[in-house]
Amino acid sequence: MKKVVVLLLTIGLVLVSAVAMAKNPIVMSLSYGGADGSEEDIAAKKFEQLLEERTKGKIDVVLFGNEQLGKEVDVVTSLELGTVNMAIMGATVHQQAAPEYNIWSAYYIFKNRDEVLQIMNGPVGEKVSEAMLKNKGIRMLGIGLRGPRNLTSHRPIRTPEEVKGLKIRIPLQPIYVRSWEALGAKPQAIAYGELYTALKQGIVEAQENPLAYIYAPAFYEVQKYVNVTEHQRSFFTYVVSEKFFQRLDQGLQQILLEVAQETCDFHNNLQKAKEADWKNRLEEKGMVFVQADQAAFRKALQDIPQQFADKWAPGFYQEILSELSKIRKGN
Q1: What is the pLDDT of residues 84-116, one digit of tens each?
Q2: CA-CA-CA-CA torsion sign (247, 249, 253, 255)
Q3: When comparing pLDDT for 8 and 78, which is higher?
């Protein structure tokens, strides 16, 4: 009789606990920079839906898009402290949390999207993930691709020689500056939000961005050509604060990891589908797509990464090249 009573009490406590958790779910903040309708915004909403469904409401995801919780550099600190639980971020998290592996801003490292995915989902990606966790207490969950960066301008540009003297706005990362200066361009520092006016007034005559970031601010009104250089293939990184992750029991941790990977797959399929859509939209707005000589650009810039190799972990650049060689032979 006593055993029955104990069993019933135990079951009762479990049920009460379950009801309490359902009524008081774990609140999880998710920060990202994209505005409503952007690829990372759509993916974030997918993550929210999946995680809340799979955990049966035990985790309540609250989305903070459009940099509501601060710039990426501030969000990295918040992730480390645990005041922000999760984020979808650009290269800043690599620069802050794993600088010894932050090769991703170099041009023409990757030839296509599949190479990015294979590198980041393989041994190299594991090294980066371990470094982030060790350095900043930030756990890498996966990556979501961005469209390749292309050059827009007032005149068509097909070869590296035609870049000479070009006044171009770029993010002033050292490897970006070195690359465009090597081509003979004149890089300028202008905030993205002020770029439309700078192009319209002729302060600069060119800029470079993925197609989505060319369409969103209506650069088609002040630029005529999209020169398909595809000089950089970058990605968003899905990360979670380790302090938050360790608050979860093993079951919730596993669901979070599975949902994050599923969301990254969703993100990558979405990006691939939308890339053609962005191209069509820009053409409808009057922009002309020019196929640049990518092989010539690649050759002109091939020595730039080696000039920054001492900034990365010893031998890391060569390891990337070795892994890419294996991938290309396999294909």
Answers
A1: 999 999 999 999 999 999 999 999 999 999 999
A2: negative
A3: 78
Asked whether the beta carbons of 43 and 144 are under 8 A apart, the reply is yes
Q: Does residue 238 contact residue 266 with C-beta atoms inside 8 Å?
A: no
pLDDT at position 288 = 98
Provide the b/e sequence for 43-60 (b: ≥16 CB within 10 Å).
bbbbbbebbbebbeebbe
When computed from its CA atoms, the radius of gyration of the chain, rounded to whole angstroms, is 23
Q: Which residue has the tokens 């009762």?
A: 12
Whether 186 and 166 have beta carbons less than 8 Å apart is answered as: yes
* Residues of the chain above pLDDT 70, percent: 93
> In the chain, which ranges are continuous DSSP H helix?
2-23, 39-54, 72-81, 92-97, 113-120, 123-136, 174-182, 195-201, 211-215, 242-245, 250-284, 294-300, 304-307, 316-330
Please state, in angstroms and rounded to a whole number, the distance separating the CA atoms of residues 17 and 26: 13
Task: Write the CB contacts of 287 (distance below 8 Å, at least 6 apart in sequence).
Answer: 152, 214, 220, 223, 224, 225, 226
* Of 223, 157, 147, residue with least CA distance to 184: 157
Compute the distance between CA of residue 188 and CA of residue 194 in angstroms, rounded to an integer. Answer: 12
What are the phi and psi torsion angles at 326 (to 5°)? -65, -40
Q: At what angle do helices 113-120 and 316-330 cross, to 10 degrees?
A: 120
Distance CA 233, CA 309 (A): 19
pLDDT at 7: 37
What structural domains and CATH numbers belong to the chain?
Answer: 2-146+234-275 (3.40.190.170), 149-233+278-330 (3.40.190.170)
Q: Give the three-class secondary structure for 185.
A: coil
The whole-model pTM stands at 0.87
Q: What's the pLDDT score for residue 331?
A: 63
Give dist(CA 32, CA 238) in Å, integer.
Answer: 10
Instruction: Name the amino acid, one letter, at 238.
Output: Y
The structure tokens listed for 239 are 């990360």
